[in-house]
Design goal:
The complex is a heterodimer. Chain A is α+β, with helices and mostly antiparallel strands. In chain A, 57% of the residues lie in helices and 17% in strands. Chain A has 16 helices and 11 strands. In chain A, α11 packs across α13. The chains are: A alpha+beta, B alpha/beta. At the A-B interface, α1, α12 and α16 of A face α2 and α3 of B.
């Protein structure tokens, strides 16, 4: 009964209620959409970073990551890779040689990380091969020796183009200085400028032939079937391979992990601020309603409606107002996010700025289901907390005095 | 048998500054089936007396015993519950809930009492028929005339099967025809079902119909006449 009266009371002044509902709707929809853009940008950055750069988990010799010295290889890497590939949660893995070196063209030189890969194995783990446009070559096609895939950024720096020759100098695992000429067979571009500037990719086989010996495997990169399995898989790998350094993407790239954690909190803060501001509007409206209905509330208490029922009635009216706006706002945001998730938001006009921070110029908003569930709880709490003040005002009324009010 | 006994009832406003005795040592008793009006000039204490009898206000001193219960000793929650089950109210301004229909306004009281739906529906239709509004059950108050709204208020007051009904100036906002109509219905309910009505009124038509007239002046009983 109180439920019915409260719901009907919400529509007593349709214009006023619709204004409050519209405010809640637009405030929430705007806030959620903003949050989805921020989350989408970060998710994209992380996804690109994982797919192109770090994978879900990486394994190294414990001493390798200190100074990136190539002599610290993973012992018996083939056997290790075979054991890892048997894990049910593993989708794919690849073994890489990593050597610090120098790339030189007739015009310039640059310090680089030479990544020696098995291209077919690498394609199972990394999507870097998809970052090479058709007009910029390919990812190790054909049998030609000494192909190198570099970034657009590095190509600009060295003032070279597709099919240009560069000399790559490096120290092999025995500490001997070696150099060889490579032909640029593909030019990639990712959103991460720092990654692009430093990494060049060659066939491991070509590297080994140049040095005349196996340069070893300094890195095994693992992709799992489900990113949520990382903690379990990481623990299993650490247990299985205690002599190796096992790290997940957040540990390898703490900046990415930090952004992810910070954004997760930030979106709630944004919505919390919006709800806090909306609460004032709701409280103001409900106080007006209680004041306008002083006479009626006095009558209700006079005929025998208990104070707790009056309190519940005002609470429910407030919660209805808030929840209706909340539901419509969330529904609107779901539609907006779905639309832009499909077509993206083109921010190419500021792509340089975004690229400097590792963000794609085309943004695909994203909001998780868990966020909507948590937001529903926040909306309900806002409604309840907004209701307390007006409901208490109603309780303080003296029925005798309230009935006298016109 | 007395259903209401009032002993030495006093109500003082502004006791600490300039005390105003709204009621000053009032002694009264009401029997079941009375049709009584309380009259007096403005400020004589009529509304105060009705509010105290209805448990809406607390006296400075004295007793109000309704059906063996001294309501002046009841705590707030128990008093509300007592009002719900024992006292019916008809106010000057009809005081229907505007968002509910006629039927919903009447059954509202029974819902507060926890009466089951079947009984509620039956009694509601019965009450509305007894006040001549059997064909207006699904109409909202804003579609009813003043007289019709007041009749719904009477039906609502009866819904809880109260010991008595307190009506504070029930005809004040009605035209003469509606007022006459309302009084006839109340008289009929009093005559046929022995329902006790106690009015606070200035309306001579109400006074004329009342079988007992209590006169208040300056918070004291100055007259108490029972007509034959």
């Amino acid at each position: 009964m109180i439920f019915k009266i409260a719901f009907k009371n919400v529509w007593r002044n349709k214009v006023r209620s619709l204004i409050v509902i519209a405010a809640v709707t637009l405030g929430l929809a705007g806030g959620i959409f903003t949050a989805s853009i921020i989350t989408g940008m970060v998710e994209q950055k992380i996804r690109t970073g994982i797919n192109n750069e770090v994978s879900h988990i990486q394994l190294h010799h414990p001493a390798f990551l200190r100074n990136y010295e190539s002599r610290y290889v993973i012992p018996d890497a083939a056997a290790v890779a075979a054991r890892i590939s048997k894990m049910a949660s593993v989708k794919a893995l690849c073994s890489r040689t990593r050597i610090t070196g120098m790339a030189a063209s007739p015009n310039a030189a640059a310090g680089i990380q030479i990544v020696g890969v098995d291209p077919e194995q690498e394609k199972q783990v990394s999507t870097l091969h998809l970052a090479i446009p058709d007009s910029c070559g390919s990812y190790f096609t054909g049998t030609r020796k000494n192909q190198v895939v570099i970034s657009h950024k590095l190509a600009d720096k060295l003032k070279i183009r597709l099919k240009s020759k560069i000399v790559i100098r490096f120290q092999n695992t025995d500490g001997n200085l070696t150099e060889a000429a490579f032909s640029v067979s593909g030019i990639f571009q990712t959103a991460n400028t720092a990654f692009d500037e430093t990494n060049v990719f060659v066939r491991k086989h070509d590297l080994d032939q140049i040095t005349g010996s196996d340069n070893g495997i300094q890195e095994i990169a693992v992709m799992l079937l489900d990113i949520d399995n990382i903690p379990v898989a990481e623990a299993a790998l650490k247990s299985m391979l205690p002599g190796l350094d096992v790290e997940n993407w957040m540990e390898i790239r703490p900046d990415m992990g930090m952004i992810s954690s910070a954004i997760a909190i930030e979106v709630y803060v944004i919505l919390g601020i919006i709800l806090f501001a909306l609460a004032f509007g709701i409280i103001n409206t409900m106080l007006m309603i209680v004041f306008e209905r002083t006479h009626e509330l006095g009558m209700l208490m006079a005929v025998g409606m208990s104070k707790s029922r009056v309190f519940r009635m005002i609470m429910m009216e407030t919660i209805f107002l808030t929840t209706i706006g909340g539901v419509i706002g969330m529904s609107l945001s779901v539609a907006l996010v779905a639309w832009f998730q499909r077509y993206g938001i083109d921010m190419s006009s500021v792509s340089k700025g975004l690229g400097a921070f590792g963000f794609d110029p085309k943004i695909y908003p994203f909001i998780s289901t868990k966020f909507y569930i948590n937001l529903t709880v926040m909306i309900l709490c806002t409604g309840i907390l907004s209701a307390v003040g007006p409901a208490r005002k109603a309780l303080k009324m003296n029925p005798v005095e309230a009935i006298r009010v016109e | 048998m007395n259903i209401i006994e009032i002993k030495d009832l006093t109500k003082v406003y502004d006791a600490k500054t300039i005390p105003v005795y709204a009621l000053n040592g009032v002694d009264l008793a009401f029997r079941e089936g009375e049709f009584t009006s309380i009259v007096g000039p403005s400020g004589s204490g009529k509304t105060t007396l009705l509010n105290l009898m209805g448990g809406l206000d607390t006296p400075g001193s004295g007793e109000i015993v309704i059906d063996h219960t001294d309501i002046t000793r009841l705590k707030s929650r128990k008093l509300i519950e007592f009002r719900l089950r024992n006292i019916g109210f008809v106010f000057q301004s009809f005081n229907l809930i505007p968002v509910l229909t006629t039927k919903e306004n009447v059954e509202f009281i029974m819902q507060l009492q926890g009466v089951d739906k079947a009984k509620r529906d039956h009694r509601t239709l019965e009450l509305l028929a007894s006040v001549g509004l059997g064909d207006k059950i699904n109409v909202r108050p804003n579609k009813l005339s003043g007289g019709q709204q007041q009749r719904v208020a009477v039906a609502r007051a009866l819904a809880s099967k109260p010991k008595f009904i307190l009506a504070d100036e029930p005809t004040a906002n009605l035209d003469s025809k509606s007022a006459e109509n309302l009084l006839e219905i109340m008289e009929k309910l009093n005559r046929e079902e022995n329902i006790t009505f106690i009015f606070s009124t200035h309306d001579p038509r109400v006074v004329a119909k009342a079988r007992r007239v209590i006169t208040l002046e300056d918070g004291k009983i100055s007259g108490d006449i029972t007509k034959n």
